[in-house]
Amino acid sequence: MIVPEYKILVDKELCINCRRCVFECSFGAHVYDEKKKKIVRLHEKCVGCFRCVATCPTKAIEIIRNPMLFDRHHTWKARYIRDIKIQANSGSVILTATGTDYDYPSIFDRLLIDACQVTNPPIDPLREPMETRVYIGRKPDVIDVDFNGEKVKLKTKIGPYIVAETPIMIAHMSYGALSLEAHKALAMAAKECGTYMGTGEGGLHKSLYPYADHIIVQVASGRFGVTEEYLKVGAAIEIKIGQGAKPGIGGHLPGSKVTKEISETRMIPEGTDALSPAPHHDIYSIEDLARLIAALKEATRYKKPVFVKIAAVHNVAAIAVGIANAGADAIVIDGLRGGTGATPQIMRDHVGIPIEFAIASVDRRLRQEKIRNQVSIIASGGIRCAADVVKAIALGADAVYIGTAALIALGCTVCKRCYTGKCAWGIATQDPRLRKRLNPEEGARRVANLIKAWTHEIKEVMGALGINSIESLRGNRDRLRAVGLTDAELRVLGVKVAGD
Amino acid sequence: MIVIDARNKKHKELNFEIEKYLNNGYKKIKLINVNGQRYIFAGVKGDYYLEIEGVAGDDLGAFMNGPTIVVRGNCQDAAGNTMNYGKIIIHGDARDVIGYAMRGGCIYVNGDVGYRVGIHMKEYKDKKPTIIVANTAGDFLGEYMAGGILIVLRLKSNYIGDFIATGIHGGCIYIRGYIDEDRLGYGAKIVEFNEHDKKLLEKKLKEFCTIFNYSVDKILSKEFTKIVPISHRPYGKLYTE
User: Fold this and answer.
1) What is the pLDDT along chain B (241 residues), one digit of tens a residue?
2) pTM for this model (two decimals)
3) Closest Cα partner for A281 from B238, B117, B193?
4) How many helices and strands, by DSSP H and E, does chain B display?
5) ipTM above 0.90 for this complex
6) A108 domain-assigned
7) Structure confidence by residue, pLDDT tens digits, B22-71
8) Cis before A122 (ω within 30)
9) By residue range, what is the domain housing residue A67?
10) For position A55, which CATH number holds?
11) Which of A246, A353, A410, B146 is the most buried (most CB within 10 A)?
């Protein structure tokens, strides 16, 4: 017996048998029984997405975690028993989505931000200009300036780089994993906020080309939808090597999701599996990576910065140095908590390292090698709030990517069923009926609201820190203090304990 | 036709020079003394003709869309990387990952090719890429192949690498002569070479044979081995919810 995860509770007094829940539930948990003329609830089908709760006109429905899923044994916790039963039935790898829900200690939650008192006073962000703009790309070693009387001319050639008005960018999530409506909402929000969104590895739908100056186009091993036009239209190019939710394994969009429109954007036949394996078989070394970076720069005539995205793994600092030396303009590091639309559970829950340690060690190593200016660091994977953004930057990041947070703003309830393609909120689905539930304009407004709200919060914190430019917070570990971390952890982070 | 001497020029310098001529309306370009310069014609779109004398470097015609390139010499790795359309004709040998994820057009090689040739090759609607190799190919030929046609003729040697078509889930590979089933990788199978295939090869080989001066009939007088995917969804049953 597999114990259902959720229980559907219906208040009989409130329920008017309107069958709205039957219509709304894409997982088949509310079913109308024609013979008995009543709605039947199949608890085992419920994924806890709350779509029925939100849409029930009389607010009669409540979803609770099944109380039977209690841990009757400390070692044999309910989640392990459940997984074993599922695998004993199927003999298959357990698939899941989002970032890990294991209770690894959050390092962000162990870090506290400084503030000015008396000396070196705070700045009032409501009255003083606060600079949250970041420049992502290579910065020169030296600036050569030509002074000609009154005129000052920059002799050093700078760039290419991209300018984001906030250090919050929207992570790469592919069209295919997401609906076109979700992709469009994110693109519109990025443009509205003067920041960027990533295409993921599924190409860029033609209808989103008007937003392309705020879109970073991704190139992964499968090269789906990658043409010279795609490379030239985006603001920057990102080579995907790895992903925090599944380091060392690749992407795989099942053929069942390759609909007509997806097939047009990915440029593959309908119904075939879209395999993007982890190994780029043309990249076996830093030299090979350098070759792909250079090929992309040549193909775009050196007008686009090229990023390289890796998962945060044990030797992330050494790998980052290699990537910097290979000529990348930015390194994207995706941490242990990074999200995904589909991953084997074992990869999501047990592979990689927390982003906090990865940022700190990459930043430090690049400084030691005296090449920190050559690359920007973009951190991602479990950025939940503006405080996480501030802490990530203070640990050494230039900017962050948010993925799950942006989707939550769109309506996601983190039910972890993205891989089923049945998202009842119209986000991670290709079903035309479900897609209609997401209005791109409304979604864009909500995502833009979130980014603007976080940016305001960041300005408040910057004011308290007495800092008026976010770039001067970058790697400024002295403005962080830790509680409840070991000496070894403090050493890696380069952060002092609170009170020190 | 404009002639550019590539001697002692770094790839960046050479490619900017080529770009200058393309922007000035030149449709035909000849490069002489090419000695491994990389990324030649990378990302170039349009109806251009390029002739190369010497050894073309890595990523020749990467991401290109339309041009015809003739290499009178050998070619290093990754020619035609993710190319969308166009033609690359190599009179000598070519090395690894030729035609990586190419989506359209064709690559003809009159010598041997290295490892992982035609990896991730795709097809889409009217686009159906073709790679034809006159002699042999190394291991992992047509790996993760998702579409298009790969033809290896083995005219001078009977050699062929191992793990042919590992992970193939689309497209088709023709190898001249007999191949044992155990040379194939995961996901591939051998099927009968029939009259329909012969007609297709006749059509595909016509231009190749004209360029390199071979007889289509003579090539087709020997049997071919046809390799196709077992499934278009090789990993369909691997995962559970």
Assistant:
1) 999 999 999 999 999 999 999 999 999 999 999 999 999 999 999 999 999 999 999 999 999 999 999 999 999 999 999 999 999 999 999 999 999 999 999 999 999 999 999 999 999 988 999 999 999 999 999 999 999 999 999 999 999 999 999 999 999 999 999 999 999 999 999 999 999 999 999 999 999 999 999 999 999 999 999 999 998 776 666 666 5
2) 0.94
3) B117
4) 3, 12
5) yes
6) no
7) 999 999 999 999 999 999 999 999 999 999 999 999 999 999 999 999 99
8) no
9) 6-92
10) 3.30.70.20
11) B146
C-alpha A302/C-alpha B10 separation (Å) is 15
Which residues lie closer than 8 Å to A303 by C-beta, 6 or more apart? A160, A232
Nearest CA in chain B to A232: B43
Residues A155 and A86 in one domain: no
Query: Are B30 and B48 spatial neighbours (Cβ–Cβ below 8 Å)?
Result: no
Instruction: Clarify whether residues A189 and A87 are in a common domain.
Output: no
What confidence score (pLDDT) does residue B182 get?
Answer: 94
Q: What Å distances lie between residue A486 and A112, A388, A475, B147, CA to CA?
A: 15, 20, 20, 54
Cα separation values, A445 from A214, A406, B28, Å? 16, 11, 51
- Kindly state whether residues A316 and A428 are assigned to the same domain: yes
* Residue B241 touches chain A, beta carbons under 8 Å: yes
Q: A178 and A76 in one domain? A: no
Cβ of B169 within 8 Å of Cβ of A254? The answer is no
Question: Is residue A147 one of the residues assigned to a domain?
Answer: yes
| CATH number of the domain bearing residue A200 | 3.20.20.70
pLDDT tens digits, A30-66: 999 999 999 999 999 999 999 999 999 999 999 999 9
| Number of compact structural domains in chain A | 2
Q: Tell me: do A329 and A444 sit in the same domain.
A: yes
**Structural contact between residues A308 and A241, judged by C-beta atoms closer than 8 angstroms:** yes
- Per-residue confidence band for A255, with pLDDT thresholds at 50, 70 and 90: confident
Cβ contact (<8 Å) for B43 and A255? no
Round to whole Å and give the CA distance between B33 and B14. 12
Whether A226 contacts A203, CB under 8 Å: yes
Q: Per the CB < 8 Å rule, is A268 touching B124?
A: yes
The verdict on A330 and A388 lying in the same domain is: yes
Residue finishing a domain among A92, A117, A150: A92
A62 lies in the same domain as A148: no
Residue A116 has pLDDT above 60, yes or no: yes
- What local confidence, expressed as pLDDT, does residue B236 receive? 65
CB distance B120 to A222 below 8 Å: yes
For chain A, what is the mean pLDDT? 95
Answer yes or no: are the C-beta atoms of B73 and B30 closer than 8 Å. Answer: no
Asked whether residue A386 is assigned to any structural domain, the reply reads yes
Note the maximum CA span of chain A: 92
Q: Tokens 């590091």 — which residue?
A: A333
Whether A52 is in a domain gets the answer: yes
The answer to whether A272 contacts B19, with C-beta atoms less than 8 Å apart, is no
The Cβ-side half-sphere exposure at B6, using a 13 Å CA radius, reads: 25
B45 and B105 Cβ atoms separated by less than 8 Å: no
Question: Which chain B residues touch A291 with a CB distance below 8 Å?
Answer: 38, 58-59, 77-78
Instruction: Give B45's contacts in chain A (Cβ within 8 Å).
Output: 228-229
